[in-house]
Automatic annotation (TrEMBL):
SUPFAM superfamilies noted in UniProt: Ferritin-like
Domain of life: Bacteria
This protein's name: Diiron oxygenase
Source organism per UniProt: Rhodococcus baikonurensis
Length: 344
């Protein structure tokens, strides 16, 4: 898979094969300015620590199992099912508590995947490459996110499983793409970050859930905006250096990994579905492409990635079929983080 990597040198800047009319000097300077801004924001700006910036033992953040504030957010298709609505208030609270812990645990697992691949990516960078400083800041922040997510899981529902077992076992292999195929690895990063970012923004726009979950989402959204911004900037900057074959491969595989990332975060794993007590027919109908709410949520979660792939020349007549087949196709966002029309 080495032939798919970017043509990077370890000592000097790579020779750049550019699209016609591209102002390489200004683009290079703008990219470095972006990296400098992101690094300064992580080091001297808004940044958090899991056990410093969350008052875990505060009465406000207490999360007993019978807390009436446990409720499923409207963005979760399960909340609209007759099965969930017919549950007693006590059972609804139990389902919501376990469901939120399951999604949080999955988020923690995806953050650990980012660490696996991220360290391998950093080993391939040249000295003085400003990408090293910012991405190291990002990995540092991700360690706090992992601790934050895991502490929430431990306190709320330690019995949850999180992502499907087959996916977790594949993480070491996927992490190796950080050095073998970095452009694809950055697309995988977005597959883990964009869906949960979209869901958390939808929840917060709807008024939040519980003070503890809201505080965790506030922290995560603030720092994740930088992480997603870096992944977008990295792919935009390096797209002209990619071979046509690499762009074609990314155009075909990006919708697949977006579908996998979204499915792993939004759909309960087999173990967690059993723990929640969701009947099989409800599970099939709720998290199915035949469900318009689920299909819309998938498409909206991929809007920013579609726009990025379009700008980078990865959505062409040769690759659009993959986006349509996976259900990740749809309108392009006019700007990053544009609220979905349903939310608006």
């Amino acid at each position: 898979m080495q032939f798919l990597t970017l043509r990077r040198t370890r000592r000097n800047a790579p020779s750049v094969r550019l699209t016609p009319g591209r102002n390489t000097v200004n683009e290079h300077r703008d990219y470095h300015d972006t990296l400098r801004t992101l690094s300064e924001a992580s080091s001297t700006g808004l940044h958090f620590e899991a056990f410093k910036d969350i008052a875990w033992n505060s009465p406000e953040f207490a999360a007993p199992a019978d807390d009436p504030r446990w409720t499923l957010p409207a963005v979760d298709p399960l909340s609209h099912t007759d099965w969930y609505r017919a549950l007693s208030p006590q059972e609804q609270r139990r389902v919501a508590r376990i469901r939120l812990a399951s999604i949080t645990k999955t988020g923690s697992q995806f953050e650990q995947l980012l660490l696996l691949g991220g360290t391998q990516f950093l080993m391939g960078l040249a000295n003085e490459n400003p990408e090293f400083r910012y991405f190291m800041h990002e990995l540092t922040e991700e360690t706090h996110h992992i601790q934050m997510f895991q502490e929430f899981t431990n306190r709320v529902a330690p019995e949850v499983h999180g992502a499907p077992t087959w996916l977790v076992k594949a993480f070491p292999l996927v992490g190796s793409l950080g050095s073998l195929w970095p452009s694809f690895f950055f697309q995988i990063i977005l597959a883990g970050e964009e869906p949960i970012d979209h869901i958390q923004k939808s929840i917060m726009r709807g008024g939040g859930i519980h003070p503890l979950t809201d505080r965790i989402m506030q922290i995560h959204l603030a720092e994740e905006a930088r992480h997603i911004g870096f992944a977008h900037a990295w792919l935009r900057h390096h797209a002209p250096r990619m071979s046509r074959f690499n762009r074609l491969a990314l155009g075909l595989t990006t919708p697949v990994v977006m579908r996998i990332g979204f499915w792993s975060i939004v759909v309960p794993s087999r173990q967690d579905a059993t723990l929640l007590g969701i009947p099989r027919n409800v599970l099939r109908e709720t998290y199915s492409m035949r469900n318009p709410d689920f299909r819309r949520l998938l498409a909206e979660s991929c809007a920013d990635v579609r726009s990025l792939a379009d700008a980078n020349g990865m959505r062409t007549r040769l690759t659009l079929w993959s986006w349509r087949l996976t259900g990740t196709d749809g309108r392009l966002s006019r700007y990053r983080n544009e609220p979905s029309r349903a939310a608006a």
